[in-house]
Amino acid sequence: MVRGGAVDRQPSVADICHMPFQPPEQFNIADYFLDARVREGKGARPAVLTDAGALTYQTIQALANQFGHVLTEAGVQPEQRVMIALPDGPAFVAVLFGTLKIGAVVVMVNPELKPEAIDYFYRYTRARVVVTHRDTASAFKTAARDARHLKTVLVLGDGGALDDRLAQTAGPVLESFPTHRDDAAIWLFSGGTTGQPKAVVQTHASFANTTECYAKGVIGYTERDVTVSVPKLYFGYATGSNLLFPFAVGATTVLFPEAATPELVFERIARFRPTILINVPTMINHMVSHPAAASQDLSCLRLATSAGEPLPVELYQRWKRTFGVELLDGLGTAEMWHIFISNRPGQVRPGTLGTVVPGFDVKVCDDEGRELPAGEVGVLWVRGGSRALGYWQQMEKTKEGFRGEWYVSGDMVRRDPDGYFTYCGRADDLLKVSGKWLAPQEVENCLLHHPAVKEVAVVGVMGAHGLVKPYAFVVAQEVRDGLAAELQAFVRERLEPYKYPREVIFLDALPRTHLGKVDRARLRREPV
Predict the structure, then answer these.
(1) Looking at per-residue confidence, does 493 or 1 come out higher?
(2) Which of 251, 258, 321 is nearest to 287 (CA)?
């Protein structure tokens, strides 16, 4: 058919991703990600692979429905919070979708939290129910004694009471609650490196928008993909890349409860032969540095992604030389849920975050909000259909970060004339040294080229005279006499003299936040 001289055709995924994605007003992502696959006839396809075997979409749907009934029996009402503190596995998936199906709100936390952190999350989220595992239940039960809003702690694992209730639940059928597309669906916790985590309230529409624009439009997830992830599902990056994105197209996710190690990741790749690896720079470094790295067969991977922390050029190049697998760095925030700047398959520019994901707009601004030309470093502003509602109980922070349709990030970036963005650090991480701005990432990238350096973080430490100086905290292959001076000279030879670290402090491991990022605030307080 021709209209007005142009061929009338159905829009492609690429076309759609340049348009604002708008789900219907009544919209529940449990239906979008799970129930729709069964309706499409994909119920018999493998949804989840574990060491114990495979579970189909139809099985996951039945489990989610059962969990939904159990949560309802426990008194959970629509819009109330359900805290999920479970290891990665089918139960995590079923509880997440069961919570969404009854119109409740998912709050995901690390199941290995310490008691004081659990107490904070209980008080802050006012969760009605927490679902945890037998191996970690003690700490959650102890903290629950003082949690006024918490009704019950449901414990899974090895035939416990909740397992019995699930086995006895009749009729694994449950219609999704008619949530509004703008209703809260999942709380994500900001990945900031200072202060207590703050909850970013994300809507049902946000999760579908990024799925359409990034997962389908940029990465190109299909039902033939098998995904495996280094970060765990409670981290929003993995929630998307290793659960929601594959479920959106009828693909398969590999889940395992253990903390990722290079040996474990290599073993799972050898066993399950995934096509997409969701990775982070810390593990990328561990994998390429492993003694057996050269003998690993990663040919099943069509690509790997990196996010959560900056990916140094040197580390990208080592990965490519070692494994020959395309590695896509990108940038996302909890406030926009997931990735909105990304490198593309076949179009990677090492050292950059890539270009804007279609469906989002990004600009680089000065402190007054004026857009800067290409080549200048400024504050990242982003808008798109995945913008959060705001921060829970933090109105001042919400007004500061959410301005109209834009989210104003604390990330400092630079855009080149071709539209590629380079990450320059957090605004509060930049250092004024000798009257000049210094981006810690530049010094870190330099030090990572030294063969003695395994990991490094550079932060500003207040000296005796009230001046901030760059200190390098290094995890070394082996600490030896004179290594600190050697590393300082290494930086002086390669960067401007004022950028060298005034002190080099050796640590056994870098401290990390609840999301696994380097805890820079703690390093600033590290005794030296």
Answers:
(1) 493
(2) 321
CB 250 within 8 A of CB 44: no
Cα angle 262, 266, 269 (rounded to 5 degrees) comes to: 140
pLDDT tens digits for range 139-173 = 999 989 888 888 899 999 855 455 656 656 655 78
Q: How far apart are CA 138 and CA 144, in angstroms?
A: 10
Query: For 169-192, what is each residue's pLDDT tens digit?
Result: 655 789 999 999 999 999 999 854
Buried b (16+ CB within 10 A) or exposed e, 235-258: bbbbbbbbbbbbbbbbbbbbbbbe
Q: Which two tokens stand for residue 71?
A: 């949560």
Q: What confidence tens digit (pLDDT) does each residue in 194-231 have?
A: 468 899 999 999 999 999 999 999 999 999 999 999 99
Other CB atoms within 10 A of residue 524 CB? 16
Beta-carbon contacts of 250 under 8 Å, excluding residues fewer than 6 positions away, are: 37, 40, 42, 45, 57, 223
Strand partners, 377: 414
> What does the longest C-alpha to C-alpha distance in the chain come to?
78
Cα(337)–Cα(188) distance, rounded to whole angstroms? 8
Sign of CA dihedral 296, 346, 417, 373: negative
Q: Specify which of 376-390, 437-451, 490-504 reaches the highest per-range mean pLDDT.
A: 376-390
DSSP state, residue 26: B
- Phi-psi bin for 75: left (phi > 0), alpha (psi -120 to 50), beta? left
Give the tens place of pLDDT for each residue, 17-70. 445 578 999 999 999 999 999 999 999 999 999 999 999 999 999 999 999 999
Question: What is the signed CA dihedral for 322, 323, 324, 328, rounded to 10 degrees?
Answer: -110
Q: What are phi and psi of 468, to 5 degrees?
A: -85, 130
What are residue 227's DSSP bridge partners?
253, 276
Q: Which domains does the chain have, with CATH numbers?
A: 28-179 (3.40.50.12780), 212-426 (3.40.50.12780), 433-524 (3.30.300.30)
